[in-house]
Amino acid sequence: MGLILGKISVETPKYQLIHKAVDYEIRTYAPSVLAEVTYDPAVLGGRDAGFMILANYIGAVGEPQNSRPEKIPMTAPVITHSAQKIAMTAPVVTSGGGGPAPVTMQFVLPANYARAEDAPRPTDERVRIREEGERKYGVVRFSGLATEATTADRAERLRRSLERDGYKVVGEYVLARYNPPWTLPPLRTNEVMLPIE
Prior knowledge:
Elements: E1 15-20, E2 25-29, E3 32-39, H1 41-44, H2 50-58, E4 78-82, E5 103-108, E6 128-132, E7 135-142, H3 148-164, E8 174-177, E9 190-195
Antiparallel strand pairs: 1-2, 2-7, 3-5, 3-6, 4-5, 4-8, 7-9, 8-9
């Protein structure tokens, strides 16, 4: 019942709150180990198609698809990066041609996996395990459905707020979603995160 009502009862990444503004936070995240998959959403079946590949790796649905085989506890958030660099403008215009950009979806592995070598090796060659060092983000939290349009709009507003306050944005936004898809939309926790210096 807690999952439907938006309760987050799994491990989440550790961070230090550096600054809290009215419309965003600045956070420094501790190093972590990630399981990730990069794919073409048009080929694999949509923007969220990587979820089941990663869920199979950790054993969230059936036997774990890793070398031990070892069930790995689910964590939150599920992180999505678009490989396409998009200039934030309005209005949003869609044109034909190149198709959707590749997407990278990531699960942050539990903190007991301090190094990539600590995690079991995936048996699916599409899954990559890697370490990510300490990083600093400007973050805005929101509820509801994290559609591409909503996420892009939140990212643009966050970018403007950060730049207004003197922060230098050094990359594209990432989307962090904390709840399963059956959680009632008004009770979902989503975050847009922009890397900053």
